Amino acid sequence: MKALEGVRILDMTHVQSGPTCTQLLAWFGADVIKVERPGTGDPTRGQLRDIPDVDSLYFTMLNHNKRSITLNTKRDQGKEIFTRLIQCCDVLVENFAPGALDRMGFSWERIQQINPRIISASVKGFGPGPYEDSKVYENVAQCAGGGASTTGFDDGPPTVAGAQIGDSGTGLHLALGIVTALFQREKTDRGQRVECAMQDGVLNLCRVKLRDQQRLAHGPLKEYPQYPNGTFHDATPRAGNASGGGQPGWIVKCKGWEEDPNAYLYVIVQEAAFKSLARAIHREDWLEDPEWNTASVRLPKLEQVFDEIEKWTLTKTKFEATQILSAVDVPCGPVLSMKELAEDPALRATGTVVEVDHPTRGPYLSVGNPIKLSDSPSQVKRSPLLGEHTDEILRDVLGMDAAAVAAAKSEGAV
Ligand code: COA
């Protein structure tokens, strides 16, 4: 049995944020019915294609374990079918532009009327306020949520992260909201609205930077590379590769960095492991030297500390350095490329990286469910072709007969 078996999701999502959420729910066992516009479907099916005329990796990697029905919700019969789907689903998830669902004729009030037990979950770029009507994509959210202003180096421009904290991050927040609302419904028998704004999701993930904004009023942020010689202004600055926590950290070069852009190691000078670190890099002399042997005397000289560590890491590959330092409890880890992650046997063994077969594109790699439940293991199944399950859903979920299905098709509703 799967954790969410018996939960039926009406998935009106597209692009990345919403699909991330419903894919997780599908991995936990929910029956996710993805509603797509006839003819085109989710626009990502055709975006960034690596192979002509087959569903892109953009789409296939975000829509595993779902069923697809084509439905034009702006046609009369389409609206009728959509209404019946709302009646028999537990959750509706959408990430259309603000107001799009209302323009289709399905406001929250109307949805509640149709099914008072339904949970209606939405991703929007912004919550109520000056930007609430804006369309938003990933990097806009990273900029508006505090990610970009706090990422990069002090002497460079604001920088967006490779991690999709705006889209996939908000999808994760939404999934938590949905399961929480399902849990509450067990007691109240009522559905509710779940709303996540991408700006809010990014800001939540940048929580420590708002912490630093307030600390700034009480003096310089001593763990930032701007301390002691740089300048602090009135907002949390960009911290380069500094750790952001109470223990200083930085990225140092390793053997081979001249050819390999990812021959680097992240190393943390944790107070508890300082002795081991000093010995490993052959700087035992630091342990007796009052200029180096406490965290407070080292703090203004962190750059020199990391320069010394780097002299040692330059003699080792990132994997050798990781092995040696980890063995003596120094917190550290290699900078891994996507190629190395794709080939990592441990990630394959846990199902975090999986190979999936697809009828038109053949085998491809994907990221499996990163959340592991001991009683509800996830099995990654390929994404559906556009409308692959239209007839099956109309027949088995809505009980429509062949004549009714044919009528809906001739109107262009499905
Ligand atoms: N049947 C009929 N019409 C459909 C349909 C269907 N099955 N599915 C979508 N449509 C219509 C919508 O109703 C909308 O029509 P309208 O403009 O007349 O209201 C139209 O398709 C376009 O939808 P929209 O959501 O506006 O898509 P877009 O491509 O213009 O914008 C985003 C894309 C992502 C910018 C926008 O959806 C958005 O801001 N979403 C919220 C934030 C978000 O999730 N962003 C991250 C995406 S990863």
Task: Give a verbal description of the structure.
The protein is an alpha/beta fold and 414 residues long. It contains 18 helices and eleven strands. It has helices at 17-27, 57-60, 76-87, 100-103, 108-114, 138-144, 167-188, 198-205, 207-215, 274-280, 285-288, 295-298, 302-313, 318-327, 338-343, 345-350, 390-396, 402-410; strands at 8-12, 31-36, 66-70, 91-94, 119-124, 193-197, 249-253, 264-268, 332-334, 353-356, 364-367. The strands form three sheets. It has a six-stranded parallel beta sheet with strand order 3-2-1-4-5-6, sandwiched between helices. It has a three-stranded antiparallel beta sheet with strand order 7-8-9, with helices on one face. Helix 1 crosses helix 7 (167-188) and helix 6 (138-144) packs across helix 8 (198-205). The chain is elongated. The two termini are 32 Å apart. The structure holds coenzyme A. Coenzyme A is lined by residues 15-18, 35, 37, 71-74, 95-97, 100, 103-104, 123-125, 135-137, 167. Coenzyme A binds at residues 15-18, 35, 37, 71-74, 95-97, 100, 103-104, 123-125, 135-137, 167.
